[in-house]
Specification:
heterodimer, A: 324 residues, alpha/beta, Rossmann fold, 2 domains, 6-stranded mixed sheet, globular, B: 82 residues, mainly alpha, Non-ribosomal Peptide Synthetase Peptidyl Carrier Protein, Chain A, 4 helices
Chain lengths: 324, 82
């Protein structure tokens, strides 16, 4: 939790604004109330004012009137966003755009796109696919990125922090997608941790110790990632022990590697490995797992699990805002 | 509305949203594999069908539809109820 507390202290005073398209969700309301009270970020809720006020009253939120609430259709931004959507999506008529912009996830995405707030946090009652869809249509991707993905921040009992990706979105990324996931996670590691990432592309093979199409995919991803980013330390394919343990790295790798034994960003070859990897670290290694945090969009958007608790929403919001 | 008119209007909407030639669209065409739709465009197709036929579809069910023929069947269900 130490790292998260550090993140919270860091974000205070930055005046970040976050839009929550699921403003009528009780957990979102509680999290927003706390975020505002503790002066962590400024929450903006999308939903019907009457419904949110009533819900707030019922669950004892005492600062409900201080939280900004936007009713999509009555919003001063609505006409602007309808035009903006048509501009971004050339084949969509104005009438259809009006229908689409009424959707809270789309409206929230357009708030981020147009700079009216810094980030969007959603997924308490929408699927991950819907959140990704809305972000793709409104915020889009920066140049060179086509793959939305996700990472987990894994905080170990010895206070070491690793970023794991992708453990939640891409089931079977190809070599290009895997390379993108590696670079994007590295960028976010640097933003959040304020130190250089050491990115290890993981496999069951270390530097050609095994040959199989699954190993070749990782080798190709490493090559692509290095070609696309020559500032980060990137290496692979590595077994996880060779990536994180210096003794093993010395034994298994003869040539110099800037990453082996010192990796802080672990890129898993597919979702089987990634999802199992983070859960093993969490449950057998007693690590705290924060995420999945969505990444890859031009501006930060995050997804919540539908079982997210108030504390999870606050942590995700803080991390997402620090990425903006 | 007769069947042919529904089919024609569905094809018109698809060709506009996806920016493709209407003649390429067959009943058995799959949106993603055959017509080149990106999966994110499903939301736009649903909104465009709703606008064209003045109906409100169940979004979750609508987003599961994979082919043009199935989309037509789904839209007909709503038109029958009108």
């Amino acid at each position: 939790m130490n790292k998260i507390n550090e993140f919270i202290e860091k974000i205070k005073g930055l005046n970040k604004k976050v839009v929550f398209p699921e403003g009528e969700d009780e957990r979102i309301l509680k999290a927003s109330s706390e975020l505002l009270k503790e002066k962590i970020v400024f929450p903006i809720l999308i939903g019907k004012k009457e419904k949110i006020f009533e819900l707030g009253k019922n669950i004892g939120i005492d600062n409900i009137t201080q939280i900004e609430i936007i009713e999509v259709e009555n919003s001063e931004y609505f006409p602007e966003f309808v035009n903006r959507y048509c501009e971004k999506r050339k084949n969509i008529s104005k009438n259809v755009s009006e229908k689409i912009v009424r959707k809270p996830l789309i409206f929230g995405g357009l708030m981020v796109d147009t700079g009216k707030c810094d980030s969007m946090v959603a997924g308490a009652s929408n699927t991950t696919a819907s959140v990704i869809q809305a972000a793709s249509l409104t915020i889009g991707y920066p140049e060179g990125i086509k793959t939305p993905s996700s990472f987990f921040i894994m905080a170990l009992p010895n206070e070491k922090i690793y970023f794991f990706a992708d453990c939640a979105v891409n089931i079977c990324p190809d070599e290009n997608q895997l390379a993108e996931i590696g670079i994007t996670t590295g960028i976010n590691y640097k933003k959040l941790m304020e130190e250089e990432p050491k990115i290890a592309f993981l496999s069951f093979s270390t530097k050609g110790s095994a040959s199989h199409p699954a190993v070749e995919k990782v080798q190709k991803a490493v090559k692509i990632a290095k070609e696309r980013n020559n500032t980060f330390d990137i290496d692979g394919e590595l077994q996880v022990d060779a990536a994180i343990n210096e003794d093993v790295a010395k034994r298994k790798i003869k040539d110099f590697s800037p990453v082996a034994g010192k990796a802080n960003v672990l890129i898993f070859p597919d979702l089987n490995a990634g999802n199992i990897g983070y859960k093993i670290t969490q449950y057998l290694g007693n690590a705290e797992a924060y995420g999945p945090i969505l990444q890859g969009f031009a501006k930060p958007v995050s997804d919540l699990s539908r079982g997210a608790k108030v504390k999870d929403i606050i942590i995700t919001t803080v991390i997402t805002c620090l990425m903006s | 509305m007769d069947n042919n008119e529904i089919i024609e209007r569905v094809k018109k909407v698809i060709s506009e949203v996806l920016g493709i030639d209407k003649d390429k669209i067959q009943l058995e065409s799959r949106f993603v594999e055959d017509l080149g739709a990106e999966s994110v465009q499903s939301l736009e197709l649903v909104a465009a069908f709703e606008e064209e036929f003045n109906i409100e579809m169940n979004e979750e069910k609508a987003l599961e539809i994979k082919t043009v023929g199935k989309a037509i069947d789904f839209i007909k269900e709503y038109l029958d109820k009108k």
